[in-house]
TrEMBL record:
Source species: Salpingoeca rosetta (strain ATCC 50818 / BSB-021)
Solcar repeat extents: 118-205
Keyword terms, alphabetized: Membrane, Transmembrane, Transport
Pfam families linked: Mito_carr
A GO cellular component annotation in the UniProt record: membrane
InterPro entries in alphabetical order: MCP_dom_sf (IPR023395), MCP_transmembrane (IPR018108)
Membrane topology: Multi-pass membrane protein
Residue ranges crossing the lipid bilayer per the database entry: none
Protein name: Uncharacterized protein
Length: 306
């Protein structure tokens, strides 16, 4: 019991240290990205979705700039859920694929090396399954974030995360919390393809100052493909509940301009630039602090010997 309590406490401290800066700095950009993606479906009087500057100005004139921090709790929970689920689900799926393929630990000596085609199939299968299962489990939290965030004027009947879940289940059923799972499946497959291509052909730079450029490219390149899936999922989530998610997805793709799915791309680039900058600063700090730490450690060892 003591070990469990310590583990929970350490996870809580880690989550607080990670999520508080993310909620404080990135949540406004995440909300703007969501609003731009759904701008053609949102009908909010007085809110200008033409640009980031116009949006902030219209928020200041109508509700408040604090609206940029809407749904912070749902955002943090969804982000934490994905961070916790993806590695664990990936480990389980990898073990299952290994067993199914007859490559258990006992057979590792007799197993032949995988061919390129077999590695591709294994990577895509593991990636698609793990991404989809993790995202599907966390989808109710993502649905809550999308609904609470897009309710800019607070006109909906739910005012908090628990009230949202109660209202949605009571009025539309549990299935309404999983709207858009078809888009998640397609996104997971595409993401696994992109991850395999990146890992097979691109090596991270050794220069810490170039790590930021590398991260920006690694994030922004796949986002050219992934942003439309994210926007489509968000628009399906807030779509009319009387229409099935699949039918509404088909409606959005066939009757509305698919180019509108890129309305949030400029905000995505800003988020990627911030992530790249923090990565570069972190790598630079490690190069500066690590030699100093080794020098201090060696001096301490010399003192102990003396």
């Amino acid at each position: 019991m003591t070990d469990i309590a310590i583990n929970l406490a350490s996870n809580a401290v880690w989550a607080t240290m990670v999520e508080l800066p993310k909620v404080g700095l990135l949540l406004p950009l995440e909300n703007m990205k969501l609003w731009f993606a759904c701008s053609s479906d949102l009908k909010v009087p007085g809110i200008n979705f033409s640009s980031m500057g116009a949006l902030i100005k219209s928020l200041r004139q109508t509700v408040s700039v604090r609206a940029l921090w809407r749904a912070s709790f749902a955002f943090a929970l969804h982000d934490l859920a994905l961070q916790s689920l993806v590695p664990r689900v990936t480990s389980v799926v990898t073990d299952l694929v290994t067993i199914i393929a007859g490559r258990g630990q006992n057979d590792s000596r007799q197993a032949k090396p995988l061919s390129g085609w077999q590695r591709f199939l294994a990577s895509v299968t593991i990636g698609t399954t793990s991404f989809f299962v993790s995202s599907l489990i966390a989808l109710p939290l993502q649905s809550a974030f999308v609904h609470l965030s897009t309710d800019i004027l607070s006109t909906a009947t739910y005012s908090s995360l628990p009230s949202f879940f109660l209202t949605m289940v009571r009025e539309h059923g549990v299935s309404s919390l999983f709207r858009g799972w078809q888009v998640l499946l397609a996104r997971s497959f595409v993401l696994s393809l992109l991850r395999f291509a990146i890992r097979s052909n691109i090596q991270p730079p050794r220069d810490p100052l170039m790590s930021g450029v590398f991260v920006f490219g690694i994030l922004s390149g796949p986002d050219v493909v992934l942003v439309p899936f994210d926007a489509l999922l968000q628009r399906v989530i807030i779509g009319p509940k009387t229409v099935s998610g699949w039918a509404w997805c088909s409606h959005l793709l066939t009757t509305k301009c698919p180019v509108r799915l890129y309305d949030s791309f400029s905000t995505v680039l800003v988020i990627n630039a911030i992530n790249a900058l923090t990565t570069s600063l972190s790598a630079y700090a490690q190069t500066v602090l690590a030699p100093n730490a080794r020098r201090v450690s060696s001096e301490d060892d010399m003192d102990e010997r003396d």
